[in-house]
């Protein structure tokens, strides 16, 4: 059974993004820039849950959640940023300039469900909400936009729900890794699917798989937003066996995975 969006907007669709902070991931920043650049999309605001926009808040939060694993994760984050800048300096500088235009529309709030945040969202009269890396949203927030809220999930549904599903797909020896754009509901990664796709895994590195999945996800997300705007979005239920709810990998999971990766490289 599928359902189709009904309204057709003869103006740019008004969107608000929900994310987390204080440091937006590279793909979230790219998503914001693409939304703001598109002539048929009006980016009203982004609400990101964080105590402040200070990077030290990010470090403390990561340490609280991941323990000693925070150190290599922070190192990878720093090196990833340096690598992107060195390999694509013009693109990275252009992205930074685009994000400067959005400074007044990106709001870091301690509680994304606070009454004042919901009141501000209502005042903006958004047509569509867009989730990119936000905490789990409550209905009073994701149902506020007139046409509901879409979210991106990097994982095949319903087989791979929860956190770090690209890692777990590779860990489990899957041939492909998936990404979907869903309509947010009260469940966790159980919404109706608007767009979906997958990329091959094979003997490729986690970085290469994630790079392709990230790019595909951004394309599908923009396509989904535009489909909602023109009334052609088709929402279909998830199908297939429901997998377990995945969590962040533990140190032994990471060690096992990295060992397999090196064995594959040496076996070439």
Walk me through this protein's architecture.
The protein is an alpha/beta fold. The protein is built from nine helices and eleven strands. It has a seven-stranded mixed beta sheet with strand order 4-3-2-5-6-8-9, sandwiched between helices. The protein has a two-stranded antiparallel sheet with strand order 1-10. It has a two-stranded parallel sheet with strand order 7-11. Helix 3 packs across helix 4.
Shape: globular
CATH fold node name: Rossmann fold
Tally of discrete structural domains: 1
Instruction: Detail the poorly predicted runs.
Output: none
How many helices in DSSP terms?
9
As a whole number of angstroms, the C-alpha radius of gyration is 19 Å
Along the chain, the helix and strand elements come as EEHEHHHEHEHEEHEEHEEH
**Strands side by side in the biggest sheet:** 4-3-2-5-6-8-9
- Strand fraction equals 15-25%
Mean pLDDT: 87
- N-to-C span: 45 Å
**Based on DSSP secondary structure assignment, what is the total number of beta strands?**
11
CATH architecture: 3-Layer(aba) Sandwich
Task: List descriptors.
alpha/beta, Rossmann fold, two-stranded antiparallel sheet, 268 residues, 7-stranded mixed beta sheet, globular
Outline of this structure?
The chain has 268 residues and is α/β, with parallel strands linked by helices. Helix content is 43%, strand content 21%.
Secondary structure layout:
Layout lengths: L2 E2 L8 E8 L5 H12 L3 E9 L5 H12 L3 H18 L1 H12 L5 E4 L5 H10 L3 E4 L7 H4 L6 E5 L7 E2 L2 H7 L4 E8 L8 E9 L5 H25 L3 E2 L9 E2 L4 H16 L2
Parallel strand pairs: 2-3, 2-5, 3-4, 5-6, 7-11
Antiparallel strand pairs: 1-10, 6-8, 8-9
């Amino acid at each position: 059974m599928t359902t189709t969006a009904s309204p057709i907007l003869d103006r740019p669709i008004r969107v608000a993004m929900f994310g987390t902070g204080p440091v937006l991931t590279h793909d979230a920043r790219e998503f914001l820039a693409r939304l703001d650049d598109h002539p048929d999309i009006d980016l009203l605001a982004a609400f990101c849950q964080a105590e402040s926009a200070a990077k030290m808040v990010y470090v403390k939060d990561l340490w609280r959640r991941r323990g000693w694993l925070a150190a290599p994760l922070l190192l990878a984050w720093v090196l990833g940023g340096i690598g992107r800048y060195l390999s694509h300096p013009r693109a990275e500088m252009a992205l930074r300039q685009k994000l400067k235009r959005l400074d007044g529309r990106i709001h870091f709030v301690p509680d994304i469900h606070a009454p004042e945040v919901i009141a501000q969202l209502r005042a903006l009269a958004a047509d569509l909400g867009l989730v990119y890396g936000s905490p789990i949203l409550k209905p009073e927030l994701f149902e506020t936009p007139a046409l509901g809220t879409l979210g991106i999930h990097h994982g095949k549904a319903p087989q791979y729900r929860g956190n770090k599903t690209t890692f777990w797909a590779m860990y489990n020896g899957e041939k492909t890794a998936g990404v979907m754009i869903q309509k947010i509901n009260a469940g966790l990664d159980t919404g109706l699917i608007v767009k979906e796709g997958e990329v091959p895994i094979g003997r490729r590195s986690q970085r290469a798989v994630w790079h392709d999945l990230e790019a595909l996800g951004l394309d599908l997300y923009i396509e989904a937003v535009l489909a909602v705007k023109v009334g052609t979005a088709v929402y279909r239920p998830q199908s297939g066996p429901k997998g377990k709810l995945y969590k962040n990998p533990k140190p032994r999971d990471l060690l096992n995975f990295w060992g397999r990766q090196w064995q594959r490289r040496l076996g070439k």
